[in-house]
Amino acid sequence: MKILVTGGAGYIGSHTCVELVQAGHDIVVVDNFVNSSMEAIRRVRKLCGTEFPFEEIDLTDGPATDRLLEKYPVDVVMHFAGLKAVGESVQIPIEYYRNNLGSTLSLLSAMKKHGVKNFVFSSSATVYGADAPVPYKEDSPVSRITSSPYGNTKLMIEYILKDTVRAVPGFNAALLRYFNPVGAHESGEIGEDPSGIPNNLMPYIAKVAVGKLDKIHIFGNDYDTPDGTCLRDYIHVVDLAKGHVAALKKLEENCGVFVCNLGTGKATSVLEMVKAFSAACGKDLPYDFAPRREGDLPETWADPTYARETLGWTAEKGIKEMCEDVWRWQSRNPNGYRD
Ligand code: NAD
Ligand code: WQD
Hints:
Oligomer: single chain
Bound molecules: nicotinamide-adenine-dinucleotide, UDP-4-deoxy-4-formamido-beta-L-arabinopyranose
Shape: globular
């Protein structure tokens, strides 16, 4: 299939480009580098062994997005582009709504004009209600409103896509709800490259391991969990990328709306993750216990049954591989793509 990958220079998009090309698809990639760089594209091209087309475009620019789909007649849009920092979204909600909703609406308008009818969306487990029991299933209740503007953009875009499927004959939308993506490509060539001090656990641990930060702060050790720290469903980014390739099958079946968790079904505590990374990098990483972080849920993980049954897809890589791959990426690229 011919696939437009938006946000393809970013963390998940770049890994998905590699898996798409390896599965025999043709890709066109777009990004505005608000949270990435051209170096990621160069490395993805190297890994893929092909000079796929790349366009630097801000997808909130409607006419530019229209010209993009005019130039490249694609079968599918895979929409990774978006702003994703939960805390930042509380500080600058307007920018988050403008960017995440605006880019999606530009794409949908251009798709309507050019007759493109398949959309894959990077949604998030954050759309599930705080009261939903774990493990989260696709028919678990979603929040009426999530705990952040970022999460609300995911929820709103899910509704926009459901309405589009209802209104446009033949339109299909795969809403893929990611759990906690971590890891890096096994080559060590591409990986997560956050700017500034990371907000998320895995990149923070990696920066401590490489000596860029002093110590890991574990937010809360008094939760009602086996070791008192929060439980999450960490999924290797390459498994996640393969889940996108698998989801294309559903679009070919004319699925209408397809909602699917992409998680492993396994819960790992913060402390377990710190220990696994220490083993991967061969040194005991320093940590302390800090107060709970506002808004954190004690435990979230996926029920992956539906993905297995409908896509024939299951995550294969465990925590050890996730940590080893991040360490390879981080130790070879201590300054990320800026090296
Ligand atoms: P990322 O920031 O690494 O990648 C997003 C890419 O989109 C970046 O390269 C950025 O430059 C680009 N971009 C942003 N706005 C754009 C615009 N207006 N026009 C063109 N390009 C634009 O993030 P990621 O971790 O790869 O996440 C990809 C998607 O998955 C996002 O939509 C994110 O919300 C979603 N998601 C991520 C996680 C996670 O933990 N990483 C979890 C659930 C969902
Ligand atoms: C994991 C655990 C922290 C940093 C976020 C978004 C979610 C989704 C994935 C996009 C928690 C603890 C963290 C640190 C710590 N993204 N932690 N010290 O919050 O589960 O999910 O990313 O859709 O929407 O909210 O991920 O990596 O930030 O935290 O102790 O320095 O690690 O308290 O228990 P989270 P995370």
